[in-house]
Design goal:
The complex is a heterodimer.
Chain A: E1 3-6, E2 9-16, H1 23-26, E3 50-53, H2 62-71, E4 78-81, H3 86-95, E5 99-101, H4 104-109, E6 115-119, E7 126-128
Parallel strand pairs in A: 2-3, 3-4, 4-5
Antiparallel strand pairs in A: 1-5, 2-6, 6-7
Chain B: H1 5-11, H2 17-32, E1 38-40, E2 43-46, H3 51-65, E3 74-77, H4 94-109, H5 120-123, E4 134-135, H6 138-147, H7 157-166, E5 168-170, E6 182-186, H8 193-206, E7 210-214, H9 221-234, E8 239-241, E9 250-254, H10 256-266, E10 274-277, H11 284-293, E11 302-307, H12 309-317, H13 320-326, E12 329-333, E13 350-353, H14 356-366, E14 369-372, H15 375-382
Parallel strand pairs in B: 2-3, 2-4, 6-7, 6-9, 7-8, 10-11, 10-13, 11-12, 13-14
Antiparallel strand pairs in B: 1-5
Classes of the chains: A alpha/beta, B alpha/beta.
Amino acid sequence: MKKILVKGKVKGVILKSQNPINFLGTMDKKTGIINDEHHDLFQKSVKDTILVFPYGIGSSVGAYTIYSIKSNNSAPLAMICEKVDLTVATGCALANIPLVTVTEEEFSSLEDGKEMYLDTDSSNPITFLE
Amino acid sequence: MDLTREEESALKGEQGETMQTAYRILVATGEATDAEKLIPIEWAHLSGVNYNTIGDAGEEFLSSISKDARVKVKTSLNPMGFDIDNVSNYNLDNNFISKQLSIKKSYETMGVIPSFSCIPYEIFDNPKKGTQVSFAESNAAIHANSFDNLKTNKESAFSALASALTGKSPYSSLRKATSSKLTIRMKVDNPNELTYGMLGFFAGKVGNESVNISGIGHMDRRSCKSLCGGMGTSGTCAKFDFDEDDSESEKIDFDENEMNKIYDELNTCEKGDLITLGSPQLGLEEISDLALRLKGRSFKKRCMIFCPRIIKEQATKLGHTNKLEQAGCEILSDCCTCLTPLIKKEEVDAVTTNSIKGAYYLKNSNGVDVNLKSLSEIIKDETK
């Protein structure tokens, strides 16, 4: 764990992307579905997942998109990134979505489809369910 | 980050949901920018006003928090999408107008001064040297750090809003006394405001946080603003130093060759259908100067001039507004070239401007061609 940007405690299934995410440009604000055909999460919904991706890109207004998907009940339960960026940080803060950054090694261990706990107050914040 | 007991309590929600959200934003921003604590600020300047940029999600968020959010410190506001006094001349749809007015109302309800200006440094009295402020508008943050002896991060719309509501901001690097790691040696002779805009644009691209500039003499206000606008457009830097003897830093030259590269990147055509002046908005000095230069001349095509409302009022009292309108200018308050909904590619092919910041957004956001010219060239070529 590198940084805790927004605190929280959730349990969920990992949805992992190897690509950065541009929230303003490529995410449907109502459904949380990624509509960029060049993205590895194309046509997938981030709703109720633990969204793992390298970092966010694009306009800082993308923070409002994160707020919108939360208001429309289509937001992830938590986000985990490798690198911090202000758009995702402020978006998660606005929407109260837990957000942490992790080391490269931890990032590789977060596999798509795995079920996990995130508890930012714990000494061992990321644990996997068998 | 180290938080005081009161800050911790707000973050836990013990001071209500709005304060909790505001502190969550400050902590997330602070962690992201390696701040060790929050510090008090005396003035916040907010971006995220134009409906064209924040859209429905922004409008809904502001409407929701304005029910109980109130600013704690002096808070000024960036331009919005139009000037209500003449919006009917610009064929803007009613949805845009009503959403924009809702945003305006939300900010006013929160206690924000409805300045609708990207040049707070020109229309408010500057606080004393070294005062910590929180400016989201990039050209204003750069101007505050570089020319006004104030200290600010290059805030986001969200961190500046959170600062306005709490009176605090993350203590990140630009608030501390640091020196620039990079020096740009200015090598272009006889610069005008367009040259300085391109120098700023270059600095934003090559620099990180702050940039030292050597080899420039006196700059007038127009050039200073152009320099700040240029840098804010192209990167994340938020401060210039002007130190002639900075032997420690890495050196890079800004010469004719670098300048031409930027000119070619932003200048996409040789002729505009209309002219825009302002981005940053014009201040009284620039308006007075323009009125003087236009004496007896008038524009051969439309010329939109963007300035703060208070500047237009002062200009009217001094008789400038009348003269400029006689010369064919349309003077717009409360809005600016940058991300304007009033210039549509369906109606306009190309715009002539002396603003680097304006050029960048006209090209990339409005999707029109841009013809870059200094003000002197514009007056020479486009008036009779």
